[in-house]
Design goal:
The longest helix is centred in the last third of the chain and has 10 residues. The two termini are 67 Å apart. Helix content is 2%, strand content 42%. The chain is flat and about 110 Å long. With 924 residues, it is mostly beta strands. The strands form 19 sheets. Strands 46, 49, 50, 52, 57, 58, 59 and 61 form an 8-stranded antiparallel beta sheet that branches. The protein has an 8-stranded antiparallel beta sheet with strand order 47-48-51-60-53-54-55-56, with no helix packed on it. The chain has a 5-stranded antiparallel beta sheet with strand order 1-42-41-44-45, with no helix packed on it. The chain contains 3 helices and 72 strands. Strand 4 and strand 5 form a beta hairpin.
Length: 924
């Protein structure tokens, strides 16, 4: 929009290593930048005008910039002094520094400005348009021709344009102009005109328009001119903002009537496949249009945000705007401004979707997201673009009103190269879960890289330096779906830790994610496993330990949640038995919304648990058209009234249809309650705590693209609307299914919530040391590492405070976990035995000379340990450990060979370093 402030792409994954990745689509290895994007998003040092750049073009490795400014200065922090540059500057494409070409565009009265720059096809002449009366003192009238070789105005070219010229197009013998003028050389030429390219003499071309012209573009065959601007008529024919006229006469060849009246065309570009139009509007069309070579419309990008310029290059359409709402394209909702975008110029063969409301949607946005800001003047941001080449490197130049690029000061001009990608992807935020033996799900929100939408993720287990799996996934700034990988090589009762990195196509690699660990259960966790088995496409368990992401535990959904305004994490007790936790909302501003736009089929199920004593009601779970702002369209939701009643509502044909509990059937009693709502061919159904609360013969809902919301979103217009849109209380175990659950399945879920589950205790060593036969009088209790060897002897001793079994449970499994150090050859080829320590010892006092006696029956063993710092674990004898529950107990590590094992001690600060017991308790 003028002065105004989606892409539902499939997650592409590839895999190498043990386990499985979800929703796999194989992708080729990317090049230095994810193709077909041709430029990095890393801006290069560039001299800066002190005003606004309105126009650019290039020739022979030189970039020409025109606008409204009086000087240029070096990049921030660079050496050099400010130079005079009156509305024009010529810069070296490769260095970003001014050349020796100096031109001053001035006017006797008013403020001079350069609004158009166009280079002739032979690269010898630069034509300039705007509002000015002289160039380096040579009299001109708003249009000038500059000899590029000598950097001087051509005195023989002297057309008379009495007012502002906003756009130029050049052929071998003709210059076409668009602007605010109504006469040229005293003859009527309203907003568009043509003059001789050598003399400037007026040509017979007549294309009179009723409002300003802003763009002109020669057709590929040279027979026609595309006109853009504010106009409603051309030569008397109705055609708003865009028209095609004969290049010789100006006679109208094609009119357009589908651009809204408050929208104007700001630029027109061309490639061999057709033409591209940028629009700016108020409350109307703000995006981009692609035309075929016959000038018919191919697609329309209806993102809102004042598109100023379009530039097609190698199959990609680059654009400058401040796009803030691409809901109409199925991409990002209203919110943050995106100033520089890239998208494919066309759909592939057979890929174009069916029109929606009369228009074909635009091709996908690509991974190129340099950031800018509104800047000066009208606060538009970037306004113009140009591609230049020097020494085989190509540069994308951008000019405009901005004062920041990629978060750092840079005014009016910036540039990006085709090589030199140095920016590192964001660090993944990962989590892990295991609900049945033999399987761990590792998941993370896709990282973001400004110029690579295809990133490679490496998963590291137990601190190993070698990844156990490699997964590739697509992401954009606004589309960062969860990626996941399932480790199927794990053992029941053992603990595992995982970390993830992201690497772009140039090899830039993020930091390792924080270590996350999980214990694999000995038996199936009944409730979560059933939710997964019953086909949940979204399953939020709220066991997350960091903000702002909520992991999806479904088998294949990969729909994570994004926390808004920091809801309370790890709330206990949760709704179901076991260690799982809930999430808490304040009832005023907090919610969780899903990470990508999607549609919902005609059959679905909503399920969640809630606990509250609020008297202000609020939304529990629903579907809406926005993310962090109130949704304009909202449907398929569960909400609570002020009195605690539960409503399930849909909005087919604009009329709300609801099911609800009875007047006295309320649920704000501060107890956990289970709610399920379904809709399908049989209509709507509502269940509370496993019991049916009614059905309704309504099969339709509002057909919107949107996002799932938990804890809040718009409830305007809904029956018994509560005081608050936001829910105050705790929510747990939220699931959405792409099908209708049966009443028996609903009841089974409610019953399974109280099913017995395993209890896992992780116990760190409270004290440790080792003895060294080579230093028989030395105590090593303060050492950060421990050693084991047969000859000459090292022995390690570990003390644990072992908990008693929880009531009604017994020890089902036990394992010991240690981590090898970063010392070269820290592993061993020898077997290391775990035995009980029967004698007394202490970290501070025990030496080889005073070493304790050891038991002779091993509790477990490590059959060799590979080199490289990594976590190692071994199962221990459950019967022996059961006998010492509730006591302080010591384990010894011994060996019989000559190859030492070095492991971290409890004094170490390395990740996952401390020796640890994992104890799993289950029902008797």
């Amino acid at each position: 929009m003028r002065r105004s402030r989606g892409l539902t792409a499939a997650l592409a994954l590839s895999l190498a290593g043990a386990g499985t990745a979800i929703g796999l689509v194989l992708i080729p290895e990317a090049s230095a930048i994810t193709q077909p994007v041709a430029f990095t998003a890393d801006n290069l040092p560039t001299w800066q005008p002190n005003g606004i750049v309105w126009a650019m073009d290039e020739a022979n490795g030189i970039v020409f910039a025109g606008g409204t400014f009086s000087s240029v200065r070096p990049p921030d922090g660079a050496a050099g002094a400010e130079q005079e540059a009156v509305n024009f500057v010529a810069l070296d494409a490769a260095t970003g520094a001014p050349t020796s070409c100096k031109l001053s565009f001035t006017v006797g009265e008013g403020s001079a400005t350069v609004r158009a720059l166009t280079v002739s096809k032979d690269k010898k002449t630069l034509y300039a348009g705007g509002y000015f009366g002289a160039v380096n003192g040579t009299p001109v009238s708003s249009v000038a021709a500059i000899d590029i070789a000598t950097c001087t105005p051509k005195a023989s070219f002297k057309p008379q344009f009495p007012s502002t010229v906003r756009a130029l197009a050049v052929t071998d013998d003709t210059v076409y102009a668009a602007g605010d003028f109504s006469t040229v050389e005293g003859a009527t030429r309203e907003r568009f005109a043509a003059v001789d390219a050598t003399s400037g003499a007026l040509k017979p071309f007549v294309a009179n328009a009723d409002e300003p012209g802003r763009a002109v573009r020669l057709s590929n065959d040279g027979k026609n001119i595309l006109l853009g601007g504010d106009f409603f008529t051309v030569n008397g024919s109705q055609s708003h903002a865009l028209a095609v006229v004969n290049a010789t006469t100006g006679a109208v060849a094609k009119t357009y009537g589908t651009i809204p009246s408050m929208s104007v065309v700001k630029s027109i570009a061309a490639d061999t496949t057709g033409y591209y139009v940028s629009n700016e509007g108020t409350g109307g069309f703000d995006g981009r249009i692609a035309l075929a070579t016959d000038f018919s419309e191919k697609w329309r990008d209806q993102c809102l945000g004042a598109t100023q310029y379009v530039l097609p290059y190698d199959g990609v359409l680059y654009s400058s705007s401040h796009a803030h709402n691409c809901t109409a394209e199925g991409q990002f909702p209203d919110g943050k401004r995106h100033f520089l975008l890239a998208q494919l110029t066309d759909w592939g063969n057979g890929e174009a979707p069916a029109p929606i409301k009369g228009f074909v949607r635009s091709p996908a946005k690509l991974g190129w997201h340099p950031t800018a800001n509104d800047g000066l003047g009208e606060g538009i941001g970037p306004r113009v673009m140009a591609v230049a080449e020097k020494n085989t490197t190509k540069y994308m130049w951008v000019g405009g009103e901005f004062t920041l690029i990629n978060g750092k000061p840079q005014q009016a001009l910036t540039r990006f190269a085709s090589t030199g990608d140095v920016r590192v992807p964001t660090t993944p935020v990962s989590s892990v879960a295991s609900v049945k033996p033999g399987e761990v799900q590792v998941r993370w929100r896709a990282s973001y890289d400004q110029d690579d939408n295809k990133l490679t993720y490496r998963i590291y287990r137990n601190g190993s330096a070698t990844p156990i799996a490699t997964v590739s996934a697509n992401s954009l700034e606004w589309l960062r779906r969860q990626a996941s990988w399932t480790d199927t090589t794990v053992k029941a009762g053992a603990s595992y830790s995982y970390r993830v990195t992201a690497t772009d196509a140039a090899g830039n690699t993020s930091a390792l994610s924080a270590s996350t660990s999980v214990s694999v259960p000995n038996s199936v966790s009944a409730y979560p496993n059933q939710v997964r088995e019953d086909g949940a496409g979204l399953y939020w368990r709220y066991d997350d330990v960091v903000s702002p992401y909520v992991a999806d535990s479904s088998v294949a959904g990969n729909t994570s949640g994004i926390q808004l305004n920091a809801p309370a994490l790890r709330q206990t007790p949760g709704a179901v038995t076991g260690a799982s936790t809930a999430i808490g909302f304040n009832g005023t501003s907090q919610q969780v919304y899903s990470d990508h736009r999607q549609t919902v089929g005609s059959s679905y199920t909503l399920e969640t648990w809630f606990k509250t004593n609020t008297t202000r009601g609020g939304k529990l779970l629903g579907f809406g058209s926005n993310q962090d702002r109130n949704s304009n369209y909202h449907d398929k939701h569960l909400y609570m009234t002020n009195t605690g009643r539960i409503f399930f509502g849909v909005n087919p044909s604009g009329t709300a249809k609801t099911l609800s509990t009875g007047l006295l059937d309320t649920y704000n009693d501060n107890k956990w309650h289970h709610v399920v709502a379904t809709q399908g061919p049989a209509g709507m159904a509502l269940y509370l705590d496993g019991k049916s609360k009614g059905t309704l013969n309504v099969t339709g809902s509002e057909p919107i693209e949107g996002f799932w919301h938990v804890g809040g979103d718009n409830l305007a217009g809904w029956p018994s609307r509560p005081t608050s849109n936001f829910f105050a209380g705790q929510i747990d175990e939220t699931a959405v299914y792409p099908k209708v659950l049966t009443e028996a399945q609903v009841k089974n879920h409610f019953t399974l919530a109280t099913a017995a589950t395993d209890t896992v205790s992780k116990v760190n060593a409270t004290e440790d040391t080792y003895i060294n036969q080579g230093a028989p009088s030395t105590a090593y209790g303060a050492s950060t590492s421990l050693a084991v060897r047969g000859t000459s002897a090292y022995e390690t001793y570990l003390r644990f405070d072992i908990p008693a079994a929880p009531a009604g449970q017994v020890l089902k499994s036990a394992s010991l976990q240690v981590k090898t150090t970063t010392t070269a050859s820290a592993g061993t080829v020898d077997t290391v035995s775990v035995v009980p320590v029967t004698g007394t010892w202490s970290g501070a006092g025990t030496t080889f000379n005073s070493k304790p006696t050891l038991g002779t029956t091993p509790l477990g063993s490590f059959a060799g340990v590979p080199d490289g710092s990594a976590v190692q674990s071994t199962p221990l004898n459950t019967t022996a450990l059961s006998a010492v529950l509730g006591t302080s107990y010591s384990l010894g590590l011994t060996g019989a060979g000559t190859d030492p094992l070095w492991i971290w001690s409890s004094e170490s600060t390395a990740v996952d370093a401390k020796p640890q017991l994992t104890l799993t308790f289950g029902a008797k």
